[in-house]
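Handout, page 2. Input:
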Amino acid sequence: MEEELKKFLEKQTCIGCYNHCQLSNPNCGRSKIFIQEATEKFNNMKSQDKFGTRNILN
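Output:
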């Protein structure tokens, strides 16, 4: 699951500063909250997927 999360974070952009880095490779400390939010979103989407209601990675 770590690899799937990393791929998901690569598609997400940090809005903590003007750099707008990928959340998988942030350049500032402000990104922590956005990484946490994206991780929660990923986990929610994966839990929905277990029940066959949604598939986020395809």
